[in-house]
Structures are given as C-alpha cells and as structure tokens.
C-alpha cells in the first residue's frame, strides 16, 4: 500500500512538481512521504495541505449517518441520491429514447419508409442508444471515483438504490445531465468561447489586486459548479482559493474531473439527450473531450455545503468573494448578500458576474436597481468597473451588462444568452 502510494507520488512529482494529491493519503503516510520527498519539490505548501486535510476531516464528519437527523436532506443521503442518479444514467436515458421510438411508430408505415430511406431515423435512434453507453462509462467512473473519495462502500450504495427503487423513487435525470454538461462549460476546449465571455472581467479585476506570495489573498467562490473559474483564479498566483458548492451532483462531477490525470482523456457525447436545435445529426452526436487542462485538486479547496451555513465560523476571513452566475440561486437574497458582507474582511471586495434568473421558489425577486440599493444598505460601496466589461446598465451606477452564454451548445441553432451583470463592491475598512 505504502509502496503504491510512493510510486504514485513520485509519478506525480515527475509530471508536475506542484501537484500533490494529499487528499487521498492518510495523514501519517502523508507525513512520512513529506519527509522522504519534500527535499526536492519546488512547491510544498504545508499550510495548503493542512487546509485540505482539515476540510477532509470536516467532510467525513458531516457525512456520518449519526451526524444529525437521517432524512433526505442529510448530506450523506443527498450524496447517495446523486450517486444513484449517475448509476442509472443509461436506464433513464434509454427509457427516453424508447419513448421516441414509440412515438415514431405513430407515423403511418408508408411515411416511415420514406423517412427510413431518406434519413435512416431508426439508425439514428440506435446510434444514440449506443452513444448513451459511452456516456454511461463516464457516469460510472464518476460513481467509482465518488465512492473512493467519500469512502462509501458499493454495498451501502447498492442497498440505498435498492430501497429507493423498491419505493418507486425516480432518479433526477436532469441534475445528472446538467452536471455532466458542465464538463463542456468548464473543462473542455469547446467551452473556451463561453469562458472567454465570462471569465476575463473577473480575472482582470483580480489580477489587479496587490498580493504577495508569502501573504496570499483569500478568495472564496460560492456556487462554484465544477470549479474552472476557481482554478483559473488560483492560476493567477498569489491567491488562496476556496470554492463552495451545495449540489452533490456538481460535487461528484468536480471530484471526478479534478482527479483526472490525462489531458482530454475522457470523451463523451453531451448533446444526445436533446434533439432540438441541431443543424446536423453529426453535430448532435459529436464527441467532446475533457479536461482541456488538468485541475490540480490541491490548488483549490472545495468546501461542500450550503454557502449560508457552512462558513458560519469564517466571519471576516476573505479578501475577495467572487460570485459567478450565483446570486440569483438564492431563496433568500438578503441572506446571500449579508453572508457575503459578513465573510469579507473590512476592505474586502465582492466581484459579481451573472444574470438575475430567479428560480426555486425565491422569497423575493429584486431588480438590479433594488439589489444595488439593498447592497448599499447592507454596507457595500460599489466601485468603478472596466469599460471592457460592457455598457453601464442603469445610469448612475457602475454596473455593466455583458452578453454571456451559459452551458450553450456552440453549434446549436438556438443562441440563448444572458445580459450578465458585472460589478465590484467594497466592504469599507
Ligand atoms: C447557475 S450555477 C453556476 C455554477 C458556476 N458558478 C458556473 O458559472 O458554472 C449555480 C450554482 O450554485 C449552486 N448553489 C445554489 N445554492 C447554493 C448554496 N446555497 N450554496 C452553495 N452553492 C449553491 C448550485 O448548485 C449551482 O451549481
Ligand atoms: C471508511 O469507512 C469505513 C466504514 O464506514 C470506516 O471504518 C473507515 O474508518 C473509513 N476510512 C476513512 C479513511 O475514513
Ligand atoms: C487596476 O488598478 C489601476 C490602478 O489602481 C486602475 O487604474 C485600473 O483601472 C485597475 N484595473 C482594473 C481592471 O480594475
Ligand atoms: C536536495 C536536492 O536533491 N536538491 C536538488 C533538487 O533539484 C535541483 C534541480 O533539479 C538540484 O539542483 C538540487 O540539487
């Protein structure tokens, strides 16, 4: 066991001296390895690895069944539910194409034979069914990685899924599909255009923040999805980045992508589950590979849980909080804003880019001008923003609007996008 781990660490050391996947190592072994190999690695940030070890401990504790009431909102229950969802990826999708086959049979035989001879519709259905099997391998790899990462046994998952299925609880196909589509947005070359629309405003604002290697700026990215922005911020250097995500589907996808060690080593077909808006069937069936860039899981700390509660003990800890397509997910927007304000140190900054697409039964739905008024009342002072981030949206404010797509099929015939709002606000000293 130790031998395997040492080999593993050595390989990584050769590949990239900065990569230390401590999260997989128990502390004692980690210590031993640190002593053996630390002498010649360029980057051994022990504070950073302690941060990861501490958080891993917190996560394991939070996931214990005995921690709190065992119901569908228990973190372990939510994790098992998401794992069940990925496990049933193929079944749920093939049930859908089965329906499409049945609907196709509604067409009179004569017409069907025209369709068959001209466009081979049955073959298209068969091909897509086959491609769902490719995607299922990715879904299962996400499950395997998740079981290992969270220390959950296959037996426990099997028992959980059996009980769910006995009681007729269907898995959440949409959440599984959305999490997997984020591989495109965050970690594929195909997602680059979309990232180029959204990330530069945020990264440029951060690049300007003065910082020193021995005193990194603490950045928090709540609602981070599967983490590309958080990793790109870390890539700027001089930032200690924490990302946070509530969804167990997203967290499973993130844990998977951040453990991958071969660039573009995974291929899947993200568009086969929605047949609208395709110029060609080749487009619909096209493969996308990821990750376009490896994510060093140790360069960003991922804290799982609800942003409004999981950082209860971190008042004043962060220099910068970055919200990307996040604030409109709030049920209680006031709590989000107050929480951002509380977590920032005096003099700290809040950087936001995103739309105002309220969902999930929000307690209040504010327009942009109202968000400004409320944020100022809470104690934020809005700052100037770069003209490259769009036109001023509401006269008299410094907030700019910019067209930004989200999880869009770049070759699709539908071009949905948002007028995402960019701002920078300071919590005065
Ligand atoms: C629209 S997505 C944006 C994800 C990512 N920032 C991006 O741009 O790709 C919003 C994310 O916020 C997460 N989220 C919603 N409420 C949350 C909460 N209370 N705490 C943490 N994350 C939350 C959702 O699960 C979802 O992944
Ligand atoms: C993993 O889970 C098993 C059984 O629940 C437990 O006995 C073991 O201590 C856990 N291992 C770690 C590293 O947390
Ligand atoms: C960076 O800082 C300089 C000097 O303070 C300022 O002029 C410039 O507008 C800033 N750029 C951004 C992107 O905030
Ligand atoms: C302690 C030790 O082995 N240091 C070596 C680390 O690697 C550099 C460059 O490859 C060598 O110059 C050091 O001697």
From TrEMBL:
Q: Which SUPFAM superfamilies match?
A: S-adenosyl-L-methionine-dependent methyltransferases
Q: Which residues form the signal peptide?
A: 1-17
Arranged from A to Z, the UniProt key words for this protein are: Signal
CDD domains for the chain: AdoMet_MTases
InterPro entries cross-referenced by the UniProt entry: CARME, SAM-dependent_MTases_sf
Family matches, as Pfam families:
CARME
Q: What domain of life?
A: Eukaryota
The family database entries (SMART domains) matched by this protein are listed as: N2227
Could you tell me one molecular function GO term of this UniProt entry? S-adenosylmethionine-dependent methyltransferase activity
Report the protein name in the record.
Uncharacterized protein
Q: Which organism is it from?
A: Aspergillus nanangensis
